[in-house]
Amino acid sequence: MTAVLPAKDLVTRLSGVFAGKLEEAGRDSVLVRADALLEVAAYLKNTAGFAFDYFNMVTAADYYQYFEVVYHLTSTRHNHSVFIKVRCHNRANPSVPSVVPLWQGADFQEREVFDLFGIRFEGHPDLKRIVLWEGFDGYPLRKDWNR
Amino acid sequence: MEMTGPENFPTDGELDRREGQAVEDLKAHSREAFPDPAAWLEEDVKRNIVLTSLDWIIDWARRSSMWPAVCYPACCGLEWMAALGPRFDAARFGMEIMRASPRQADLLITAGTLTWKMAPVVRRVYDQMAEPKWVIAMGACGISGGIFRSSYNVVPGYNKIVPVDVYVPGCPPRPEALLYGISLLQKKIGRAKAVPDLSELPNPLKKGGLK
To answer: What is the torsion angle, in degrees rounded to the nearest 10, for the CA atoms of residue B204, residue B205, residue B206 and residue B211?
Structure first.
């Protein structure tokens, strides 16, 4: 059974490297500043003790004040996993960095989040709608979307 | 028409835009449901007895060898596959041959939820089928959109896209229900008028009757 790394432990191990870039630790998740996401993610992937080589999924949630983008990572070597969260407060033009350069599996899923929430993934190689068609009006999974 | 080389091929973005335009066009023209294509069957009292015999054998041939097109957008397709399998054996009704090409098929069984993005594709499959052709709307989603009816991306019933002959309710319908729907369609075909009435043929004695 894959163990979820306790967020408190993770923050303790990360805070030396990324001082001021981790916003808070939930029970199972670590909230990272959006501008630090790429370096934290690269560190988690490439550091021996973590080795998060498998990208489970990315999704998002709309909390009205901000969008929260959730990343689920797993290490097949150590059989542990972690949730990383990023918030974007700019509702008119939300954007987070793309993690496709680190995990190719993020490609279609970031496109799906972009399609349904309208969150831009900066640096994504081919960011366009994937489940809805070109010309669809709005982003249907936003709480304030109404047809 | 200008020469088309690789440099003239549409870009990915252009293809996406055309695809989206096709969806929007179809959606804009799909407000009303198609009427029952065989509504005229009720007024066939004037049919000629000689031609009826010819009708009978043509209808018999048509209803006994229906070839369904492979077009299963969602989960009802599994019940349809079960209906084709040995336990329920749709081959008993002369329809064991699935056609991967719509040009060789004359029956479209709309097994499953249809999204607007998929709708132009299903419409194209229907358009490519040769006449005469029939459609069975299978399952709640095929009839009305089912539980997804109020969704932003689901077609509220196949009859917005193609004319439907028989509706088979259920979520999903059991294979028996589908076979019953197929036999209803066969009865419907059995009443169809394949040969026109003499009165509908061009009459050389009438003005403008024969060119």
So the answer is: 20
Instruction: Test A135 with B24 for CB contact under 8 angstroms.
Output: yes
The beta-carbon neighbor of A134 closest among B17, B116, B153 is B17
Which chain A residues are closer than 8 Å to B16 by Cβ? 128-129, 133-134
- B63: tokens are 């209803």
Q: Which amino acid is at B184?
A: L
For residue B127, being part of any structural domain is answered with yes
Distance from the B117 Cα atom to the nearest Cα atom in chain A, whole angstroms: 6
Whether A35 maps to a domain, the answer reads: yes
By residue range, what is the domain housing residue B128?
67-185
Which residue type occupies A31?
L
**Do A132 and B19 lie within an 8 Å CB cutoff?**
no
- Residue B81's H or E segment, with its range, is helix B76-84
How far apart (Å, rounded) are the C-alpha atoms in residues B14 and B7? 14
Note the pLDDT tens digit of each residue in B43-97.
554 454 455 677 788 888 888 888 888 888 888 989 998 998 889 988 888 777 8
pTM of the model: 0.77
